[in-house]
Specification:
The protein contains 12 helices and 27 strands. It is globular and about 70 Å long. Strands 13, 14, 15, 16, 17, 19, 20 and 21 form an 8-stranded parallel sheet that branches. Strands 1, 2, 3, 4, 5, 6 and 7 form a 7-stranded antiparallel sheet that branches. It has a 4-stranded antiparallel sheet with strand order 9-10-8-11, covered by helices on one side. Helix 6 packs parallel to helix 9, helix 7 packs parallel to helix 8 and helix 9 packs across helix 10. The two termini are 39 Å apart. The protein is α/β, with parallel strands linked by helices.
Length: 604
Amino acid sequence: MSASPVKRLSSGSISLLVLVGGLLPSLAAADDHFYVMPGGKKIRLTRSESEYGVVLRHCDDAKACAQRLKAVDAGDLEDFPHMPLSRVKMLQGDRLRAQQDPAVAEVHPIYRFEGSTTPVVATGTAVAKLRPTVLDADRAALWKEYGVASAEPLPGQRDVFLVKPFSRDEDVALAERLAADPRVLWAQPNFRRPTRPTQITPVDPFYSRQWHLNNIGQLGGTEDADIDAPEAWEIATGEGILFGIFDTGCDVDHEDLRDNYIGFGQDANLETGFEGADDPRPKVIGDAHSTAVMGLAVASGNSLGGRGVAFGAKFTATRGLSEFLTDVEVARAYNFAREAGVDVHINSWHFINIPNPEVIVDIIDLAFREGRNRGDVDGDGDDDPLGMVILFASANDGIEVDSNTSLATLPQVIGVGGTDDNDVLVSYSNFGTGIDVVAPTKRSGLSSPGMLTTDNTDGPEVIEPGLNVGGFLGGSDIRDADTEGKYTQFFNGTSASCPVVAGVAGLILSVNPMLTATDVRLILEHTAEKVSPEDAEYDGVTGRSLRYAHGRINAGGAGDKVGAVEVAQETLSNGGVTWPDRPADVRVEGVFLRWRQNFGSDSF
């Protein structure tokens, strides 16, 4: 899906709309600021002279508000780039006149990062992480010194605060000034950033069609270009594992998902306590990406439709990708997952060519280090968290990515690229040294179908259609998987690869739930098949390829192959031993080959 749909808020809550002009706006050099990364690197931010983010009191006010603003020459309303169905739009026009409209609650500036055309919307707030040595009294003095009107500690994150300046447009400048203070680890504006699901536009119920699980050449692909799921299911089905996801709305009432849903989730657009805040269901037309992703991971083994990789697992879900969320709202989604006890977290989305916000990097790190808390495992009286397994799709630009702009490359994350039914990396899959494994995403050929999975149910329970509308691929005369619109065979992109790997991670943990998040990553990497070796050029020492990472995942052992689930089973009798991390910093010095081995305490 390339479009991100919208959610309706309950009466009395604030929804957000930003209004957009068609031409590239003029930019004011005088308003340039810097976005400061940890370590001090600065990226120039340029504020638009003519675009503004407008917060409406109610989502339903958008059309009438647009008409009124146009009537008073305040500006024209157009879709925000990449998010045509979102309640977030852009206004290129008169800020003062827009503020006078009765439907408008707030108006904020729009900025662009140097080297990027993607607009981000200020919120009047920033996020800062203080050093642990800053005591309460020192903190109060710090806020006073920098003109902080309020500072709200973020739930689940230590020493991280949502700060608000006294002057409404000083949030970006405040973050920049705080970042330079030695008492502050990092500080960044709390921007609204456009996001995009990492499923590409669809091109094509039923297990026999799910070639990624068991490829016998039934649909024209290469035999065994799959994850060997049947062999893995002889050992594990995912029972006892809880999945989480941050995505669009999820049809948790779907016939192939409802038995595995735990009964509550989150709508990240609503504050806790608001009506619907614990409901992740789709809210608008096109709110369907999460349903397809979750189906690939946990669709039930109930003789209906298809089957997820970890079909015996349970899941919860956070709806948020349909909306234009702030950095803090996205971060809260991961805190929800951590507090809900999520074991494996799926992220088939990415930011659009802009730097990663540190508040999200920080909460991901916290979830990785302190998630899956099983209590006092070693008997020393302290809790021993095993770490949430967090996966991100690499995205679909066909480029090399790094940790500054791709969450998929973070060391706390398992980054996933995509291969086709011939074990060839698909042309759109992003790659790089931070991506860990690859997994199936679509059949070969530009117009071939993708992966068969669950789709939003067309009917009285869920009135929002998904990819399959009345038996046809939405907006076309191409027939889809079924005539009732419950399944689609056109889901692809690295959005499809990510939940497949997540499913295997769930199978690993269902065999041995005491494995750490690092253990799971190492098992996935070391059991991955070195597919397409000539194209991949796997390194003889590190075992990885720039484009294919450590190879295509392998869940079950078939023939002479050892699968990930088999290795998990072996850890039950060998003291939990897997592998150390791969060698790093490999280089040749004269006639000597040197490398550094990553023997971390959590690597075994």
